[in-house]
Automatic annotation (TrEMBL):
SUPFAM superfamilies xref list: P-loop containing nucleoside triphosphate hydrolases (SSF52540)
Keywords: ATP-binding, Nucleotide-binding
Keyword Nucleotide-binding in record: yes
Alphabetized SMART domains for the sequence: AAA
Designated name of the protein: ATP-binding protein
Domain of life assignment: Bacteria
One GO term (biological process): DNA replication
Keyword Chaperone: no
Molecular function as annotated in GO: ATP binding
One matching Pfam family: IstB_IS21
UniProt cross-references to InterPro entries, sorted A to Z: AAA+_ATPase, DNAC/IstB-like, IstB_ATP-bd, P-loop_NTPase
Residue stretches making up the AAA+ ATPase domain: 64-198
Length: 233
């Protein structure tokens, strides 16, 4: 009986790992040098609310239907944390989808041209965790803005574990500059942050920590020209 139980346990674990692998593949999260919470140096983060950042691996926001936003200058770890959040979701069997804001705009534009906006919006509503990286890197025209907030609206009503994770160099109060619309846009932004955890991150860039810089100088050499000897020879 013990051998049978061990076999069933082995097969169950094999199915679980295969499911995680499929979720990671479909998530579009980078597979090369994947970002994890274990790989993030939380000791660099200080301040009165630093403990809240340390609770991210619990996915409490997602289970509470709260969106998450990481705001701050480049190189401080926003994308790392967003991708780590998505990876943790996959490890727990939750569908995740990662996309840059510029890619999302391009996808919306193609959907408008092809007349399949409904299918595209539905595909972005399905994942438990939708990550939109680098909000503010491009401007959304009116059709794209409408589609973006259609996604926000439908996810707001979505049942089960659910969160949008966003990163930006710009505070949410300035996001209206990158979307085209009227007062309904402001209402949609309010809905996006109706229930949310916004982490405003400050500090020096973490990029280039393994960069070696060498100062070198080329020394001029005497050149021998046929029939002419360099001075001193």
């Amino acid at each position: 009986m013990a051998a049978v139980a061990a076999t069933f346990s082995y097969l169950a674990e094999k199915r679980r790992l295969a499911s995680i692998e499929t979720l990671l593949r479909l998530s579009r999260l980078p597979r090369r040098e994947p970002k994890t919470f274990e790989g993030f140096d939380f000791s660099r983060i200080q301040g009165r609310d630093a403990a809240a950042l340390g609770k991210l691996p619990s996915l409490a926001d997602l289970y509470a239907h709260r969106n998450v936003a990481f705001v701050g200058p480049g190189g401080i770890g926003k994308t790392h944390l967003a991708q780590a959040y998505g990876r943790e979701c996959c490890m727990r069997g939750l569908k995740t989808y990662y996309i840059k804001a510029t890619e999302l705009r391009d996808r919306f534009q193609k959907a408008v041209q092809r007349g399949n906006t409904s299918r595209v919006v539905s595909s972005l509503v399905k994942p438990s965790c939708l990550i939109v990286d680098e909000v503010g890197r491009c401007v959304y025209d009116r059709p794209c803005t409408d589609l973006f907030f259609d996604v926000v609206d439908r996810r707001y009503e979505k049942e089960g574990p659910n969160a949008m994770v966003l990163t930006s160099n710009i505070a949410p109060s300035g996001w209206d500059e990158f979307f085209t619309g009227d007062d309904t846009l402001l209402c949609a932004l309010d809905r996006l942050f109706d229930k949310a955890s916004v982490f405003v991150m400050r500090g020096p860039s973490y990029r280039g920590r393994e960069l070696d810089t060498y100062s070198v100088e080329a020394v001029p050499q005497a050149v021998k020209v046929r029939g002419i000897q360099p001075e001193g020879m």
